[in-house]
């Protein structure tokens, strides 16, 4: 019986067989990767299209991408750009001036786009930016808003020159309008809308400096009756994010996270400065909310009966801000109560407890930190906020 003999595996044969396997295997690998890429992107497209089909009663108009290019006149008038893409000024056929956000890098599942359309698309409030329309043409994503000629609140709080300064009365009206917009998101819709990114940059001003809450890329929808919500990861901008987004033992995540962010915004509006300033002349002023609390608590101010109207307004805004940035969510007021406090007289307000933890209390909290979360650096005086750096860009 003849014995089978395997060919000798010489160096030449080894190289030939290896090369053949590579040549024959490469198309398979490329085809597999192409299949995975197509499946992932089709999943994103299908998810967005399924959402649009199930929400065909939304108010915004659905534009084609060719319509979008006509509206913005071929990308001629660029207003700005960020991690989300670019914003262009445009004009509708009716003559209405709009701002068009072109999403250059949508998330893999299209969730940022869905968040924006699902939230703003269902509401209309004088203090929430209006979504006029959108484009969802395969990979092309665009959002069409009312144009806000005075830009964002950020430049009026922090800019030292170049912009028209806002009076104390104007700043107060902007704070009250912003509070009303957030209150509407929490209580005025059939679903509770949590914004999760309240900050100066996301408050837009119209021609009359009326504020509009904008940028809902991080927003989440929840039932009105729901109290505690679930998040897989912290979201928002450092310096405005509520501590419960990082510290497990603080309390559950709820609409009170937006209240905290509004408090940090309100403090900056009252002081016309960032809450954290490493270059402050005195170390006690590095973290502004802590310095404000110590000053007000010590009574280092002109008596109310002798105070100017501007000082009364500023003090009221600061006290309300301190109420909003209480460490524990349960100690913060609702946005409905915040509106009431801003509308009321400063004499009726009481100083809240100190909203910052002692070093010992902070160490106890850190023992229970979720190891998967990014821990906020601790600014001076035991507070739990840090400099303004984006965690989740929109």
UniProtKB/TrEMBL annotation:
Biased composition of type Low complexity is found at: 383-394
Q: Where is this region: Disordered?
A: 370-394
Top-rank EC class of the record's enzyme: transferase
A single Gene Ontology MF term assigned here is: ATP binding
Gene Ontology CC terms, in alphabetical order: membrane
Q: Where in the cell is it found?
A: Membrane
Output the superkingdom of the source species. Answer: Eukaryota
Recorded hits in InterPro entries, A to Z, give: Kinase-like_dom_sf, LRK10/LRL21-25-like, Prot_kinase_dom, Protein_kinase_ATP_BS, Ser/Thr_kinase_AS
Give the residues the record marks as binding ATP: 101
* EC numbers on record: 2.7.11.23
Q: Which UniProt keywords apply?
A: ATP-binding, Glycoprotein, Kinase, Membrane, Nucleotide-binding, Receptor, Serine/threonine-protein kinase, Signal, Transferase, Transmembrane, Transmembrane helix
PROSITE patterns, A to Z: PROTEIN_KINASE_ATP, PROTEIN_KINASE_DOM, PROTEIN_KINASE_ST
Membrane topology of this protein: Single-pass type I membrane protein
| Residue ranges annotated for the Protein kinase domain, each copy included | 73-357
Name by which UniProt lists this protein: BRASSINOSTEROID INSENSITIVE 1-associated receptor kinase 1, putative
What is this organism's lineage? Answer: Eukaryota, Viridiplantae, Streptophyta, Embryophyta, Tracheophyta
């Amino acid at each position: 019986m003849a014995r089978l003999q395997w060919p000798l595996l010489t160096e030449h044969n080894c190289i030939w067989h290896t090369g053949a396997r590579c040549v024959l295997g490469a198309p398979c690998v490329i085809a597999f990767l192409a299949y995975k890429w197509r499946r992932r992107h089709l999943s994103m497209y299908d998810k967005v299209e399924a959402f649009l089909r199930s929400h065909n009663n939304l108010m915004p108009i659905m534009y084609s991408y060719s319509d979008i290019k006509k509206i913005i006149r071929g990308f001629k008038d660029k207003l700005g750009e960020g991690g989300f893409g670019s914003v262009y000024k445009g004009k509708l056929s009716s003559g209405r001036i709009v701002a068009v956000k072109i999403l250059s890098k949508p998330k893999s599942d299209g969730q940022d786009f869905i968040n924006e359309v699902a939230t703003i698309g269902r509401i209309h409030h004088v203090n929430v930016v209006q979504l006029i329309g959108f484009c969802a043409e395969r990979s092309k994503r665009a959002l069409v808003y009312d144009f806000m000629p005075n830009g964002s609140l950020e430049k009026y709080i922090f800019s030292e020159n170049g912009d028209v300064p806002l009076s104390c009365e104007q700043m107060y009206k902007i704070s009250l309008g912003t509070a009303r917009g957030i209150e509407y998101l929490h209580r005025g819709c059939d679903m509770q809308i949590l914004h999760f990114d309240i900050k100066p940059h996301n408050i837009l001003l119209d021609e009359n400096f009326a504020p509009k809450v904008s940028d809902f890329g991080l927003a989440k929808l929840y039932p009105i009756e729901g109290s505690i919500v679930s998040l897989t990861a912290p979201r928002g901008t450092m310096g405005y994010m509520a501590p419960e987004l990082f510290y497990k033992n603080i309390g559950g995540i709820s609409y009170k996270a937006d209240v905290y962010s509004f408090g940090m915004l309100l403090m900056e509006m009252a002081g016309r400065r960032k809450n954290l300033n490493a270059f402050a002349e005195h170390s006690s002023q590095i973290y502004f909310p802590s310095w404000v609390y110590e000053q007000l608590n010590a009574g280092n101010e002109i008596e109310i009966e002798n105070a100017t109207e501007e000082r009364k307004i500023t003090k009221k805004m600061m006290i309300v801000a301190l109420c909003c940035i209480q460490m524990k969510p349960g100690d913060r007021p609702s946005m409905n109560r915040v509106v009431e406090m801003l509308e009321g007289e400063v004499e009726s307000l009481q100083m809240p407890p100190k909203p910052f933890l002692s070093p010992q209390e902070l160490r106890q909290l850190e023992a229970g930190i979720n190891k998967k979360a990014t821990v906020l650096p601790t600014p001076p005086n035991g507070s739990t906020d840090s400099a303004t750096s984006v965690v989740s860009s929109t």
